[in-house]
Amino acid sequence: MAYKFIDNYREQGARKKLVEELRKKGIEDEGVLKAIGKVQRHFFFDETFWNQAYTDKAFPIGEGQTISQPYTVAYQTQLLHINKGDKVLEIGTGSGYQTCILLELGAKVYTIERQQKLYDRTIQVLPHMGYKPKFFLGDGSMGIAAHAPYDKIIVTAGAPTVPDELLKQLNIGGLLVIPVGDTELQKMVTVLKVGEHDYEKVVLDTFRFVPLVGGPLTP
After folding, report:
1. b/e map 153-173, b = 16+ CB within 10 Å
2. Distance between CA 194 and CA 19 in Å, rounded?
3. What is the reported pTM?
4. Could you read off the pLDDT of 135-157 as tens digits, one per residue?
């Protein structure tokens, strides 16, 4: 992929239009909308496809993965209710777009990706954009216990169930947002940790994510 870090009036105008589109679709959190309006999504695309960067659609980024639809990113982020300084674990760095949105909101982000090529790409692109989360390569389904507990956890791939290991890594009062279902469709689920072993779960709208893969990493 050829990276060119140019952000002109065309891209800035396209982001403004995207923000208005997301507002019309029901995104109400002004902090989230402001972040969407600031993060240069076209930087995650080859220049050939820049005209696709601000459409409200997912787009392939290689390794069987996609950069998520902006609405989906905004929807999940809005559910997290990010406060400045929140310690957030992101499962599935992918392109890094969601990571940047979280950082714009003032979160301290720990992000993990199991695909080596995506990891290698993201650790180059995000610092060039001025974003510096804590990057990890590994099995996201297991979280990152060494740096737990977290105030918020966001999972950007569809899981068959809510992983117990992630629940263990939440602070009491912490919130997990995860799509749960089969390989075709998932329901967005929020889980609030109200006690050491007590949780409040809410099932929301239907989405389509790539599957959350666990187990040994492929060489």
Report:
1. bbbbbbbeebbeebbebbeee
2. 34
3. 0.92
4. 999 999 899 999 999 999 999 98
Tokens for 65, please give them. 């993965």
The residues, any chain, with a CB within 8 Å of residue 159's CB and separated by 6 or more, are: 141, 178, 179, 180, 186, 211, 212
Phi, psi of 213 (to 5 degrees): -105, 130
pLDDT tens figures, 178-214: 999 887 888 999 999 999 999 999 999 888 777 787 5
pLDDT band at 81 (very low <50, low <70, confident <90, very high): very high
Mean predicted lDDT score pLDDT of the chain: 91
Tell me the two tokens of residue 200: 């409040």
Point out the residues that are catalytic.
Answer: 68
Q: Return d(Cα 210, Cα 94) in angstroms, integer.
A: 11
| Contacts made by residues 17-21, CB under 8 angstroms, sequence distance 24+ | 17/54, 18/54, 18/56, 18/70, 21/56
Tokens of 93: 């760095």
The C-alpha atoms of residue 170 and residue 152 are separated, in whole angstroms, by 7
Using CA atoms, how far apart are residues 142 and 92, in angstroms rounded to an integer? Answer: 12
Angle, CA 151 vertex, CA 84 and CA 173 arms, to 5°: 115
- 14: enclosing H helix or E strand: helix 9-24
Query: Is a pLDDT exceeding 50 seen at residue 66?
Result: yes
